[in-house]
């Protein structure tokens, strides 16, 4: 009986850890607002930043650069090979 509860408890623990570690979608907007605060292309920056945050669950710190802090954000490229994420 006790051995059947162990896998269930492990699954619950993993789900709880993921819920704590990964940012929720509503956390992307304020992070992207900070990331895009210095650009003259705010609408495009916010659109792509939010898309990248939703996929990568990360936004690099600062308004420019620092993409090494979020490998997925850094490695997502356009068809032409340019950076997809601001």
- Helix residue percentage: 55-70%
Order of helices and strands: HHHH
Residue share in β-strands: under 5%
Could you tell me the radius of gyration in angstroms?
17 Å
Give me the count of strands.
0
Task: Calculate the terminal CA-CA distance, rounded to whole Å.
Answer: 52 Å
Estimate the global geometry from the Cα principal axes. elongated
SS-based structural class?
A: mainly alpha
The domain count comes to: 1
Largest sheet: none
Low-confidence stretches: none
Task: Give average pLDDT, whole number.
Answer: 83
**Number of helical elements:** 4
Quick structural summary:
Helix content is 56%, strand content 0%.
Question: Any descriptors?
Answer:
single chain; elongated; 86 residues; mainly alpha
List the helices and strands and how they pair.
Elements: H1 2-21, H2 28-35, H3 42-56, H4 71-75
Pfam family, one: GASA
Family: Belongs to the GASA family.
Protein name: Gibberellin regulated protein
């Amino acid at each position: 009986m006790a051995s059947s509860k162990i896998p269930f408890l492990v699954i619950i623990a993993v789900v709880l850890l993921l819920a704590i570690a990964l940012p929720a979608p509503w956390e992307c907007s304020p992070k992207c607002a900070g990331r895009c605060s210095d650009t003259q292309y705010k609408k495009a920056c916010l659109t792509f930043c939010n898309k990248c945050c939703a996929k990568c669950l990360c936004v690099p710190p600062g308004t420019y650069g620092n993409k090494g802090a979020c490998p997925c954000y850094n490695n997502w490229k356009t068809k032409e090979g340019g950076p997809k994420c601001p």
